[in-house]
Amino acid sequence: MARTAPLGALGRDDLSLAGGKGANLGELVQAGFPVPPGFVITTEAYRDYVATTGIGRTLPHAPDAAAARALFDAPIPEALAEAITDAYRALGQGPVAVRSSATAEDLPEASFAGQQDTYLNIDGVPDLLDAVRRCWASLWTDRAVAYRARAGVDSAEVSLAVVVQRLVVADAAGVLFTANPANGRRDEAVINAAFGLGEAVVSGEVTPDEIIVADDAVLSRTTADKRVRTVVTSSGTATADVPPEERGSCVLTDAQAVALAALGVRVAAHFGVPQDIEWTLAQGEFLLVQSRPITALRPPVAPAPTAWPLPRDDGMYMRASIVEQMPDPLSPLFADLIRPAVAESLHHVLRRFFGPDPISPDDTDFVTLNGFAYYFYSNAGMRRLLAATPRGMRVAFGRHSDLNGVPQWREHGLPDYQRIAGVWNDVDAATMSARDLLRGATELIAAGADYYTYVQAVIPQAATAEITFTRLYDLLVHGAGRPPALTFLVGEDSEPIRAERSLFALARWCRETPGVADAVVAGDALPEAQQAAFEGRLAEHLARYGHATYNLDVMQPVAADDPAPVLAALRFALGGQAVDPDARQARQAEDRARAQAWLVAHVDPVRRRVLEKALGNARALGPLREDALAAIGVGWPAARRLLRELGARLASGGLLDVADDVFWLTGEEADRAASAWDGGRPVGPSASVAVAARKAEWRGRRQVTPPGWLPAKGLMYRLFKGFMPSNEAVQSGPTLTGLGASAGRATGPARLLRGPEDFARMQPGDVLVAPITTPAYTPLFALAKAVVTDVGGPLSHSSIVAREYGIPAVLGTGSATARIHDGDVITVDGDAGRVLLADGPDTE
Ligand SMILES: Nc1ncnc2c1ncn2[C@@H]1O[C@H](COP(=O)(O)OP(=O)(O)O)[C@@H](O)[C@H]1O
Ligand SMILES: [Mg+2]
């Protein structure tokens, strides 16, 4: 095998022979990019050296790194030295850069960057051979050895290539990222530039200028005070002071920056992924000296919105009610499909309350502002609504009231919704027309929105029953040792608790079936004999509970189509980290029995009977609130299945890159494409660019906390802001205020959960911090020490479940997810409704 090779003879696949640096430089040369000429002393040469000198045998036994490096004092055997000398002569001799090029076969290239030596301005054969040996020896620094030990790489197997390259006596040098690492944007390039050779930049000795280029123009630049630069000396390089008058001047002109960025764009296009490039500038010419992929580049994020322009100024926009289930900006398709559905269901409910609808279609809307869902009410419509209220109240509370939420929900709301979902669950999506797929999803989403109006009618009835009991209890029961009222209210089954028990039953089966529990915990394949049984049980669980939504946007997977969060919860259950719900309920039942005995001993029978009647009512109705809420996603698995089938067709037709991108189309685009598909026409040119831009925009918008009410002024705002589900005040300082929804105080590391994709990160003892929680979050409460949310009130899911688990909760803070960082140690005071933030003073 070749012990040296000219750069131009190498390509990106020659990693093991030429190392990452050498292989990519070879690729650049072959593709015609400007690179200083050079050659690579391959990994074969290293192996040849350690074998011929015999140090390969002693190296692994060297007592320490210094001793290992000392072994490289052995001269390079003649034949190899000759090969290197020949290659150097062929390059034309003179000053060169001698650069370590690691293979990183077993390790990510990034971890290796800068670990091995590089020598600039090496001149003449003896110095070259010396420098090469020093590069090889640099595989054996303490740091490199320790790193390999940690990564489990056998040091006896490592090898190193060396790039020898004509030295560029650079006027300036630096780094070019062809995508912006700060915001992930692939259409921005970031240039770091300093005077002199690049060593001072890559070693961090000098703060370089930073220039951001987008659309062939300089978007921004920061010009640094560049105190030093690397210069060539008679025998190498040195760090020298930059004359004071030059320090603050720009290293690159705008035109140069744009030209360099353009070069980078071509390199990135050649490699197919954004690149991290090292460049030099000499005599007005850019030469590239390294290129490698940018590791761990985040997905692109557009700037966060700062203004909230309102489409209409004759009304108000608010985020409450069904919007609480939509904490994130909406996907374009969901926004368009839910808009008429919510607007129509609003009129439906008004008709139920008021008989003739007091407001016209023009008075209400369900829109997005910066992508976030808002109800709109016109001022005129609101006035008419308030004027009609007395009549509405009569209807509501009259003898034939249909505000009686629970029976309405039980007899109409839930069964109607289940029936519609059932119809679409049973269809064979593959045989449907594209427009029918869309129609089905639209109908399901409308049914879900309509169903939510029944949920809203259950909530007050359930709440009233609980409040009635609590009030009576406070009124009638006194004395030392009085059990808390809550003791009587918790421990009842509701849909999320039933889901949790079903999961624990699955965990129990896994534990009792040989080999299953271990495989599930490790994420390994199950024993073949148990595979089908496990899948059957999981499918049963998902069929029963897998529709629970984390977030109402139909773009978000539900457990039925992505069980990953359920499997994470199963792992917790198997690891014994989560509280077993049966054990919890047994304990609660004991507490209740004790409390009951206390009542018998301390409260007279007449008062007790009154209390018991109210309690019976509260225990029967309270859990229905959770049952009602948990069913909101009943139609979602089918809606998602239909939309993804449509997406798959549009992907096969070239409109989309992948089926799931269907959610990033607008309703109109999806409709048009569906019609085209059914008509056998092309579904349109690729929407790839638009979809990527919408995703970036969505990520940018997701960074902000949407105001709960817009415009934040006027009579209505003052009247209603106290009822909003999140604290509307702008908060700063060491504490965060919300609503204390479950008592107690706990301190722990914050776990920021934006959605199901974060569930697996939750650890026992963490404080769960989320925009909202929905019934699908319930298994996480079994691990949590406390709960904090942006949105939620005393009747929200988080509140009810936190009380059930006996952990403190502070809800509706408005800005928990914006102000708390993942891992911050915070203290949640559920009695005071306050969260002590990580950087706050300790008030213990
Ligand atoms: N042929 C060269 N001519 C001039 N400068 C060079 C040359 N090769 C590398 N350099 C400079 O030295 C810096 C570090 O070299 P490199 O071998 O990439 O070390 P590292 O692996 O630590 O990044 C480069 O960023 C570049 O600025
Ligand atoms: Mg480098």
Automatic annotation (TrEMBL):
Keywords: Pyruvate. GO terms for molecular function: ATP binding; kinase activity. Residues 16-297 form the Pyruvate phosphate dikinase AMP/ATP-binding domain. It holds the Pfam family PEP-utilizers. Transmembrane segments: none annotated. The keyword DNA-binding does not apply. InterPro entries: ATP_grasp_subdomain_1, PEP-util_enz_mobile_dom, PEP_Utilizing_Enz, Phosphohistidine_dom_sf, PPDK_AMP/ATP-bd. Residues 763-833 form the PEP-utilising enzyme mobile domain. SUPFAM superfamilies: Glutathione synthetase ATP-binding domain-like, Phosphohistidine domain. The keyword tRNA-binding does not apply. This is Phosphoenolpyruvate synthase. It comes from Propioniciclava flava. The lineage of its organism: Bacteria, Bacillati, Actinomycetota, Actinomycetes, Propionibacteriales.
